[in-house]
Amino acid sequence: MDRAQKEQVVEELGQIFDASGVVVVARYEGMTVAEMQDLRAQMREVGGSVRVAKNRLAKIALDGKPCASIADYLTGMTVLTFSEDPVAAAKVADKYAKANDKFVILGGAMGDTALDPAGVKAVAAMPSREELVAQIVSCIGAPASSIAGAIGAPASNIAGILTTLEEREAA
Asked: Looking at residue 153, what is its pLDDT?
């Protein structure tokens, strides 16, 4: 890899560190190509990505970034998983680490907050952006459906009473 390619990798990694809501660093020693492809596919499904880069270049890219605290985790065979959604990459990484013992989470960063492995698990336990939106929409919609039910209930009660009265008169 010549100097221009290294500068390009550092620039790409810098953009990743700036734009990502969460970055998770994990050790992947011993994983097969198929296992890595599976991890990439799972990450793609949630809008995240997986990147293997030289630790030295990643440390250069981290210089001055809010998530610079993850530089300490960049030793040995490491992989970066990241996503714009502050929870998605952590969820997938945590789930994958439970299923594959060769994938070990070392830590990560959420903005300028450093995360240890327990912190990554805590972030993974949080609801994703889509889940939060669904919860908010259901909270907003619940009062409206209650009001509609309350407004419609007296009319149906009156109709039931009228039907009963008609049946009594007919009998």
From this structure: 59
